[in-house]
Amino acid sequence: MANPQLTAASFMSRSIEDEQRRFAQEAERLAEQAARIAANPPGVGRSTVSGDLTRLIQEATFLLKRSVTIEAGLEAVGLMNAETATTEQ
């Protein structure tokens, strides 16, 4: 059985798929965390909301960074595929 040739674009595509899976998992956790915060608003005996919000913002920032990485990777793969298509003609 022959192995398909591993190109930079195919390697990057697999890496992007892994990043997308991690992004989805992290986004789900972030949504759960936001729901917990919403269900437990600040009040008497509940003084950790600011800490919870700070962590939520930090995690959202990391999620944003991951999304930018994914988008840049997708753009790069698109350019690699376009270049390959052009050189093969």
Average pLDDT rating: 89
Computed CA radius of gyration, to the nearest angstrom = 20 Å
General form: rod-shaped
What distance lies between the first and last C-alpha atoms, to the nearest angstrom?
28 Å
Summarize the structure.
With 89 residues, the protein is mainly alpha-helical. It contains 2 helices and no strands.
Report on this structure.
This protein is mainly alpha-helical. It has a domain at 18-37 and 49-87. Helix content is 80%, strand content 0%. Helix 1 packs antiparallel against helix 2 (49-87). The longest helix has 39 residues, at 49-87.
Summarize the topology.
Elements: H1 8-39, H2 49-87
Tags for this entry?
89 residues, mainly alpha, 2 helices
